[in-house]
Amino acid sequence: MHFLEIKDFSKAQLRGILDSAVKRKNSRSGLAKGERDSDLPLKGKIVALVFERPSTRTRFSFEVGIRQLGGEVFTSSGGEMQLGRGETVADTARVLSRYVDAVMIRSKKRETLDEFASAATIPVINGLTNMTHPCQVVTDVMTLEENKGHLDKQHVAWVGDGNNVCASWIEAVGVLGGSLKVGCPLLLKPQKEFLDWADKHKAAVSVMTSPEEAVSDTDCVITDAWVSMHDEDVENRHNLLRAYQVNEALMKHAKKDALFMHCLPAHRNEEVTDAIMDGPHSVVFDEAENRIHAQKAILLSCFGKV
Ligand code: CP
Which of 71, 95, 119, 233 could form a disulfide with 66 if both were Cys (CB 3.0 to 4.6 A apart)? Predict the structure, then answer.
């Protein structure tokens, strides 16, 4: 079974993945990072990681997680494969399906992921596209819930660019419940298809231009870089987003015990100040660690083991 978008899953399926992630995290208490999980659920399996874009967290958290599950892993950039010289995405998927048991792909465009998944005969995992970042948001939900309880009781604020991570957050709220206020410039609001999906599924998602209104009375404030890997209009984005910086003044509008999350990498003192990144609201490094636990559960769901 592929893991392509959060909206492809039912609430029960996502809850199964989240519960498995928490269980696996807890069961590793006291174990060295390199020690395997005792049940070795991916023994005999090989997973390929393919990156058309740079990565720190996604790459290393998948590599570590797969090893902990007892599997084998190798990583390649799209540029060093024949994919970079014109071999079709579909043919690449057919060939890798003969070599490995699953592929995680980070692609420049969503169409590449979809073409790869359509031709593959093994599970394919979305490791980020220009449109969504579902592995990140499963991790974010896990991190929020380990501090605050189930998402369906939480009010979340997204501040800044209505980007690919924001789109997966819209889907998470639509499937799992809770509410999401997106505070963003009109020109950088989430893409229509995600807002239409939210409307259709009666998700409690609202979009506003005021960052203060978005953050007001929320349990968790999230932001992301002003310029994502696929963006080119750097100066314009900085001008549009300057008023959306998450700083101490803005966090005061959230609940007193609100969390601050960021998928990283952060551009300190652009979208978020040092005081917030390193302050009492921040759980950004727990969030980064949880990439390992969440993705282990995602992998196991792909193999029908969740
Ligand atoms: N958050 C995230 O996906 O980080 P990387 O780009 O480093 O993988």
Answer: 71
91 and 125 part of one domain: yes
Distance in Å, CA 200 to ligand 1 centroid: 30
Same structural domain for residues 235 and 283? yes
Burial class for 84, CB neighbours closer than 10 Å (0-12, 13-18, 19+): exposed
- From the alpha carbon of 229, which atom of ligand 1 is closest? 6
CB-based contact 144:173 (threshold 8 Å): no
- What would you measure as the largest C-alpha separation in the chain, in angstroms? 54
CA-nearest residue, atom 3 of ligand 1: 58
Q: CB within 6 Å of ligand 1 — which residues? A: 55-58, 128, 136, 263-264
CA of 289 to the centre of ligand 1 (A): 12
Q: Are 20 and 301 in contact (CB under 8 A)?
A: yes
Q: Kindly state whether residue 168 falls inside one of the protein's structural domains.
A: yes
Q: What's the 174 CA to ligand 1 centre distance in angstroms?
A: 24
Number of H helices, E strands in the chain: 12, 9
Quote the number of domains for the chain. 2
Residues involved in catalysis:
106, 133, 136, 224, 263, 291
193 shares a domain with 217: yes
Residues of the domain holding 161: 134-287
Place of tokens 């958290």: 61
Q: Do 144 and 123 share a structural domain?
A: no
Ligand 1 atom nearest residue 54's Cα: 6
Q: Please give the distance, rounded to the nearest whole angstrom, from the Cα atom of residue 57 to the centre of ligand 1.
A: 5
Q: Model-level pTM?
A: 0.97
The atom number, within ligand 1, closest to the CA of 263 reads 1
